[in-house]
Structure of Histidine kinase domain-containing protein:
Amino acid sequence: MHSSLTELLENMKSGLLWVHRDATVRYANSDACLRTGLAPGHKLFDPDMAAAVSAAVTQQAARKLVSVGVASAPGLPPPDLRCRVIPGLSREDAFVLIAPDASEDAGSAFDNLMQVIRTDLRDPLTEANDAIVLAREHGGGPELDALVDGVHDLVRVLDKLVDLAELWGSGALFANDRIELWSLLQGVWAEVEPLALARQIKVRFRAQTDTASLATLYGSEHWLRRVFLECLEAALRSSPGGAVLDIEHRQMGPRAVIVFRDCGMFAPRAADEVDLPRSEPAGSRPPPAQRDARDQIGFKLCQHIVSLHGGQLREEDDDGMRNFVIDLPTGAPYRNDQSQLDIVQAQQYARDLAALMARARQRGADPAPR
């Protein structure tokens, strides 16, 4: 019964929040968590939604509203969420149903695309990489070197796409490595140091505690290494030559928070940025901000890996500075089989429902007073 209820709520086409009358989220399925940023135990941050929940509980009537969701990627505007709030199954709670996003209709097509990339692109990419290595070894003049460099950049972008496709259908990472964060960062730095030297960029790492005693991570060392490699490369590429890149480590209870301070990594191209001066028609608007393919795919890959480890990839605004944050759980392996808190909430909900039904049956069986 309990697992069936969880399965039912998770597979609803709508996002679903089960909210107590005091605006505390008691349960949120995966879609609602992703689109609202809320999780069990959180309070509703939208006062209009909280008011709608209160009205649904006290008046036992449905309400409609439009709320603001969480942006799907840094630099993108937060979406509007079309919500319907209905009374719950007790007098103390309500359900918030979040209508599917229109873009989700293309979800199955995107899944099919990921499948094609995963199965049909991996081997040709490996062969192309091997050919590049051979071309470099045999030489061929500056023209061939320039061609090889261009093809190599293209292959790296495609390689990111293949890795994203490989992970796309995964609900979990089947690895439980014990990862020392400082050793991981040192290994990644050794790979990107030539890029930093070429661009004369200094990187400073600061931690609240001794670097050798940073909290331990658990999961896939291969994929977490890939996250820090992608992020550090993107940070170095986006920083101006001669800059100083500050990276901070903060231990926030059971979570490690890595902050790239005032960093433009994975940033969309500025709306007023152009390659060459050119005249614009009167009244024309600047083009919308957008990332190049390398940064779009790299960000999505890192976001997916971090999510599979129970963490978050996000931006924070600190007095006008754009910080980029990697937030990961530490101290124990993460289990991505529906969090224990969600299971407890679903079990408690099933118990509440059973108790309500039992009381209703008891009232029906009691003899009428004389």
